Design the sequence.
């Protein structure tokens, strides 16, 4: 069930599942219907707070939000309103861009940062996919290494309600991330402000953000760890949810162990 944070600027919705220490997850641009196996894997160890970013799901987008950094600022205030202890922040795809921007604005709320095939940094080689050139279904299917996985999660035909949600998400992404497409000219320079332990995870067959972009993130964040998952596309959390969950859990656990020592 969705809960709502009534912020001064706009309400922000979120859901909670699992039990244990808290983690916060920011979704990608296209959220496939049904339950997330990655969130379920996380919920075996953590209390998972999944936020609907402004302009997605049950969170409306204020018309004044025209940049990802503004969206990140509102998300940051939503995280503060949750009143959680310092905890891991996990961003998937477009949500990885937002998570990184949140961390550049305020490190104090983030214990560890996990970025999964994040948007936000211009690739040295190749380009981030231009979402306006694809139909909604084509864009969603482009995120999978194995086309059969798209059918598994989305079926042969998308329900009208899901298409409406995808269309609303595209409207938000178009408003904040179209010129330039999928990245910010400032973000790479700002990533050096992030001082928390960070891991960047990429699907080896990502057709939306070139996997080589992992090197660009590594240059901007030399202290970060990079992990590549084979036989996975942009939707790593759907194609390899157990492997991704294990990577995240081991990363968080190793850093907490270091803190104790």
Sequence:
């Amino acid at each position: 069930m969705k809960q709502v944070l009534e912020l001064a600027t706009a309400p922000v919705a979120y859901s909670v599942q699992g039990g244990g220490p808290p983690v916060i997850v920011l979704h990608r641009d296209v959220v496939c219907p049904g339950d997330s196996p990655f969130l379920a894997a996380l919920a075996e160890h953590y209390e998972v707070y999944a936020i609907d970013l402004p302009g997605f799901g049950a969170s409306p987008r204020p018309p004044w939000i025209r940049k990802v950094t503004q969206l990140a600022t509102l998300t940051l205030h939503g995280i503060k309103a949750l009143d959680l202890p310092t905890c891991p922040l996990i961003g998937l795809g477009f949500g990885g861009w937002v998570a990184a921007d949140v961390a550049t604005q305020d490190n104090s709320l983030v214990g560890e940062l996990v970025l999964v095939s994040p948007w936000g940094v211009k690739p040295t080689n190749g380009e981030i996919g231009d979402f306006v050139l694809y139909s909604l279904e084509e864009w969603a299917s482009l995120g999978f290494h194995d086309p059969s996985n798209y059918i598994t999660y989305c079926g042969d035909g998308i329900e009208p309600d899901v298409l409406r949600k995808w269309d609303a998400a595209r409207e938000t992404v178009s408003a904040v991330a179209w010129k330039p497409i999928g990245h910010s000219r400032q973000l790479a320079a700002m990533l050096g402000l992030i001082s928390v332990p960070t891991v960047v995870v990429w699907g080896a067959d990502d057709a939306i953000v070139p996997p080589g972009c992992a090197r660009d993130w590594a240059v901007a964040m030399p202290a970060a760890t990079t992990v590549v998952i084979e036989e996975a596309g942009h939707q790593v959390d759907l194609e390899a949810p157990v492997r991704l969950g294990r990577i995240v859990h081991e990363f968080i656990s190793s850093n907490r162990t270091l803190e104790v020592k």
Notes: The chain has a mean pLDDT of 94.
